[in-house]
Design a protein that fits this description.
One of its GO terms (cellular component) is cytoplasm. One of its GO terms (biological process) is phosphate-containing compound metabolic process. It comes from Dysgonomonas mossii DSM 22836. With about 210 residues, the protein is an alpha+beta fold. The protein has one domain: Inorganic pyrophosphatase (Inorganic Pyrophosphatase, Alpha-Beta Complex), CATH 3.90.80.10. Helix content is about 20%, strand content about 30%. The chain has a five-stranded mixed barrel with strand order 1-4-6-9-7. It has a two-stranded antiparallel sheet with strand order 2-3. α1 packs antiparallel against α3.
């Protein structure tokens, strides 16, 4: 039967792009107007409701992941090296990415082309959970940004606040996500390269 009759799985059926890591394909799960956190169901590839947002904070950008990437040993090695540790592991998920754009995009479940410019080094329950920052390819405003240092500080602060609070639950005594640093476009490219290799090691090692 012709494979093209069926919708591609957004993680495994779409590649990261022929120009990765400089320009990547991103699958967008949630947008700033969403009051529910959607997440791709790993088995079916359909969007599922992860949880309603407990507080009023919203994602200030498009948010999703880079297909055919995986956070495992090679991605975690970067965090361990940076923090002088050896105990951090990857979170076993595709690498997350935020895409800045001046356009109002009203729903997720779409793919976009974006140019990574940096990222946040985040720990989620002591696992590497990098959040890459990118700009929509050819965006009228953000498209001129080359590095995370070009982004206005208020935008960075909003992103940091979201990612350090979005998984907290009422009654938590300590934050679940810890932001340990911000990195530039060169490191973002290295995270992508390593995550593609981690994906190949996990899903293509028998080929």
């Amino acid at each position: 039967m012709n494979d093209h009759q069926f919708k591609a799985h957004p993680w495994h059926g779409i590649n990261a792009g022929s120009n990765a890591p400089h320009v990547v394909t991103c699958f967008i799960e949630i947008v700033p107007t969403d009051t529910v956190k959607y997440e791709v169901d790993k088995e079916t590839g359909y969007l599922s409701i992860d949880r309603p947002q407990k507080y009023s904070n919203i994602i200030p950008a498009l948010y999703g992941f880079i297909p055919q990437t995986y956070s495992a040993d090679l991605v975690a090695e970067l965090t361990n090296n940076e923090l002088g540790r050896t105990d951090i592991e990857g979170d076993n998920d595709p690498v997350d990415i935020c895409v800045l754009t001046e356009k109002d995009i009203t729903h997720g479940d779409i793919i976009v082309k974006a140019r990574p410019i940096g990222g946040f080094r985040l720990l989620d329950h002591n696992k590497a959970d990098d959040k890459l920052i990118a700009v929509l390819e050819n965006d009228a405003i953000y498209g001129a940004y080359k590095d995370i240092s070009d982004v206005p500080p208020m935008v960075i602060d909003r992103l940091k606040h979201y990612f350090t609070t979005y998984k907290d639950l009422p009654g938590d005594k300590s934050p679940r996500c810890i932001l340990t640093g911000t990195y530039d476009v060169k490191t973002a490219h290295e995270v992508i390269r390593r995550s593609i290799k981690d994906y190949d090691n996990k899903y293509r090692s028998d080929k």
